[in-house]
User: Which sequence fits this backbone?
């Protein structure tokens, strides 16, 4: 520890808040430096031995990764562990191995040099691909290549298990194998230069319940190992070398937040009823089977959105009907008698499935491309496997089926016709299912919203996907940082569309929920409820704050807020009204 680092000037750096909480401590700067690879010529008589050494290192690496995979499976669950399948596949990549041997045979340089050269070429090629998913594969190859090189050189790879005392981990990124080895008792917070929403650091920090901030560009080159820092996971701030005043202020904030979070958790056991007696259904969004634990921990009344594509994304092949049946049944049984809304595959576009570039070719406009129901209607064998699995699970709990990205009634009719075929097939097999399985549509494309009156006659429920609905209504790419400030959930166009969809659903006497991110943001909750939505579905840890607000407000006030918002033209003014409504009812001190 260098005490004089505390005398350096205080400065704050902004990143993206990824996991809530506040931490204070010294930085452990984790730089995954490339291994120093010596280069020399191997004598002709020792060439066989050199190849054997390479094979030995590949074998050792495979054993190490399998071990990590087992540990991750134990600690984080099988979905997380599946990430390492991609790493094991790198080790089986015949092109990578045979090119290394060919390089060795032509240059006679030591095998480390040859492997480093070939793997670097692969990493560079993947890095340059204009596709976020494939670029992430470069990270997998880099991770595995470093491990192989360490093994060839007889070094042990540096990893995060070497934290000598409690530290804030600052890294360029946290790879899956880093996260597996991280010393959970010693990491105070995680901060990374990179800022992908799918960042592994985020998943790990949330599961460890420690603060995390991502996307703090170049932070690793701006701090030193041992610097003192505050990580504010609420605001996405890193304060380096904080002075006494800042430390005092954060000490107070930390106490306040802890007290407030405890109050939220206490209130979370109570029912979600407004002060004037209206019950609101608060459900959870999940991506994996093992998240049912969190749904219960945060008292979610079932699942309002099960994003089933996450069962597929990192899988080595399409999960079978039986495998999917087990997943859906497990969730339904765990949460019965509460409902579980299973959304059929929203694969494709920005969520292609690994190693299936033939089914998911690169597209210029992935968000408006070949995804979700469009993919399923053209790949009926895959779609039918999923529909049969959902039908079969429907006798094991309260399941509802929902189609994503429906654009109009013909698409809905085609999906329902395939569902009818699946029912017929199951009857033919003598298998039972819920004959009255409720079927709903996500309303997330403007054309679906504009024809909500027609769709409502054909659906048992609606769930509004505000994430996509806003991006399409306002023509704002939801993942483009440059225009993020224009993504305004309180735009009058959004409010009018929501009102129309909700009113048409209610005219046909079907319930309507919101499952986009708006539903979990307390600022928007009174507005959505005032507009008439029957339920909200969100990431489980957001449930306590939303329930607290629901219990602190009256539906009459929420309706007045929505009615006033509908008369206003400025998104900022509407936002300010919503914000003031929320602040007046929830005191965080
Ligand atoms: C949405 O679009 O609001 C939604 C919930 O679906 P996803 O975020 O999975 O696209
Ligand atoms: Mg969507």
Assistant:
């Amino acid at each position: 520890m260098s005490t004089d680092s505390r005398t350096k000037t205080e400065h704050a750096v902004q990143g993206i808040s990824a996991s809530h909480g506040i931490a204070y401590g010294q930085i452990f700067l984790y730089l995954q430096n490339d291994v120093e690879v010596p280069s020399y010529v191997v004598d002709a008589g020792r060439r066989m031995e050199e190849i054997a050494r390479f094979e030995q290192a590949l074998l050792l690496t495979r054993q190490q990764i399998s071990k990590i995979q087992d540990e991750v499976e134990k600690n984080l669950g099988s979905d997380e562990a599946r990430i390492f399948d991609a790493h094991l596949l790198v080790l089986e990549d015949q092109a990578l191995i045979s090119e290394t041997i060919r390089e060795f045979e032509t240059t006679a340089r030591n095998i480390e040099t040859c492997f480093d050269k070939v793997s670097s070429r692969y990493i560079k090629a993947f890095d340059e691909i204009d596709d976020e998913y494939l670029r992430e594969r470069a990270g997998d190859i880099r991770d595995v290549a470093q491990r192989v090189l360490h093994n060839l050189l007889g070094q042990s790879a540096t990893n995060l298990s070497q934290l000598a005392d409690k530290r804030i981990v600052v890294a360029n990124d946290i790879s899956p194998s880093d996260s597996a080895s991280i010393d959970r008792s010693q990491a105070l917070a995680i901060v990374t230069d990179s800022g992908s929403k799918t960042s592994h650091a985020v998943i790990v920090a949330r599961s460890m319940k420690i603060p995390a901030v991502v996307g703090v560009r170049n932070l690793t080159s701006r701090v030193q190992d041992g610097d003192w820092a505050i990580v504010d996971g609420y605001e996405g701030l890193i304060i380096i070398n904080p002075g006494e005043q800042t430390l005092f202020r954060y000490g107070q904030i930390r106490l306040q937040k802890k007290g407030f979070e405890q109050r939220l958790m206490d209130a979370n056991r109570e029912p979600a009823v407004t002060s004037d007696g209206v019950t609101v259904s608060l459900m959870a969004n999940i991506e994996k089977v093992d998240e049912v634990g969190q749904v219960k921990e945060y008292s979610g009344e079932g699942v309002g959105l099960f994003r089933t594509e996450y069962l597929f994304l990192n899988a080595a092949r399409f999960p079978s009907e039986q495998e999917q049946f087990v997943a859906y049944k497990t969730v339904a049984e765990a949460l019965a008698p509460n409902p579980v809304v299973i959304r059929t595959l929203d694969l494709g576009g920005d969520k292609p499935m690994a190693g299936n570039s033939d089914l998911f070719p690169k597209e210029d406009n992935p968000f408006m491309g070949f995804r979700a129901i469009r993919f399923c209607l053209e790949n009926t064998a895959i779609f039918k496997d999923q529909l049969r699995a959902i039908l079969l699970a429907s006798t094991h709990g309260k399941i509802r089926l929902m189609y994503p990205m429906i654009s109009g009634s013909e698409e809905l009719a085609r999906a329902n016709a395939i569902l009818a075929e699946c029912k017929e097939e199951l009857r033919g097999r003598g298998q039972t299912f819920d004959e009255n399985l409720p079927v709903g549509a996500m309303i997330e494309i403007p054309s679906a919203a504009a024809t909500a009156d027609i769709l409502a006659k054909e659906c048992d429920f609606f769930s509004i996907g505000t994430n996509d609905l806003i991006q399409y209504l306002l023509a704002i790419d939801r993942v483009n940082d440059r225009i993020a400030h224009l993504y305004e959930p309180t735009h009058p166009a959004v409010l009018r569309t929501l009102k129309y969809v909700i009113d048409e659903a209610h005219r046909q006497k079907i319930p309507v929920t919101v499952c986009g991110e708006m539903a979990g943001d307390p600022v928007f909750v009174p507005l959505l409820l005032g507009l008439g939505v029957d339920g909200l579905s969100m990431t489980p840890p957001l449930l306590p704050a939303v329930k607290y607000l629901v219990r602190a407000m009256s539906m009459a006030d929420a309706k007045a807020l929505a009615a006033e918002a509908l008369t206003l033209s400025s998104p900022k003014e509407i936002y300010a009204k919503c914000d003031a409504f929320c602040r007046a009812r929830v005191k965080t001190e």
Residues 175 and 506 are 47 Å apart (CA to CA). DSSP finds 23 helices and 16 strands in the chain.
